[in-house]
Design brief:
Oligomer: single chain
Number of helices: 6
Structural class: mainly alpha
Helix content: 55-70%
Number of strands: 0
Number of domains: 1
Order of helices and strands: HHHHHH
C-alpha cells in the first residue's frame, strides 16, 4: 500500500508534464485565448510543483521506490513549465521585436545551466538562489504588452494570397 501511494505521488508530479504538453499545444496554436489558457496551465503546473515535494516526503518515496528519481522527473517538468514553454510563448506571441527574438536563447541556456547544478537545491528540495521563473516574466510581459502588436496566430494557407 505504501509503494502504491508513492507511485501515486510520482503520477501526481507527472501531471505537471501533462500540463506542459497542453501548454505546448496551446502555444503552437496561438491566439489570445490559447495564450490565456496556456497561462492557466502554467498556474496548474506551479500548484502541482508547490505541493508534490511535500507529498513525496510524506509518502517517503525515496525509501519506498529507491530506483525511481522523482527529483529528475520534477526538474524535467520544471525546466519546461518555468523556462522553455514560457520562452516559446514570448516568441510565439511576438513579444520581442523580430531582431531581438534571438535573445530568448540566453535565458534558455542560463536555465539549463541552473538546472544542471548539483547543488541547486537543499537536501529537502528547496532552491538555493533565484530559480528560473520565466513563466512569471512571460506573464507580466504578456499582460503589459499591447495586444495590437502581438502575433496571435499563423495565417492559414487558405488565408494567404497567392504569391
Amino acid at each position: 500500500m505504501k509503494k502504491a501511494f508513492a507511485w501515486l505521488v510520482h503520477l501526481y508530479t507527472a501531471m505537471g508534464l501533462v500540463a506542459a504538453a497542453g501548454m505546448a499545444v496551446l502555444i503552437v496554436r496561438g491566439g489570445d485565448a490559447s495564450f490565456r489558457s496556456a497561462f492557466f496551465l502554467m498556474m496548474v503546473a506551479t500548484a502541482i510543483d508547490a505541493t508534490d515535494g511535500w507529498l513525496a516526503r510524506k509518502a517517503r518515496v525515496k525509501e519506498m521506490l529507491p530506483g525511481f528519481d522523482g527529483r529528475a522527473l520534477d526538474d524535467l517538468i520544471d525546466f519546461h513549465t518555468y523556462t522553455s514553454l514560457p520562452l516559446l510563448l514570448l516568441w510565439r506571441a511576438d513579444m520581442l521585436p523580430g531582431a531581438l527574438a534571438w535573445l530568448l536563447i540566453l535565458p534558455l541556456l542560463s536555465s539549463a545551466y541552473f538546472y544542471s547544478q548539483v547543488d541547486a537545491k537543499t537536501p529537502d528540495g528547496f532552491f538555493l538562489g533565484f530559480p528560473s521563473c520565466w513563466n512569471i516574466v512571460a506573464f507580466y510581459l504578456y499582460v503589459l504588452h499591447p495586444s495590437s502588436r502581438r502575433r496571435t496566430s499563423t495565417p492559414r494557407a487558405e488565408d494567404r494570397s497567392p504569391g
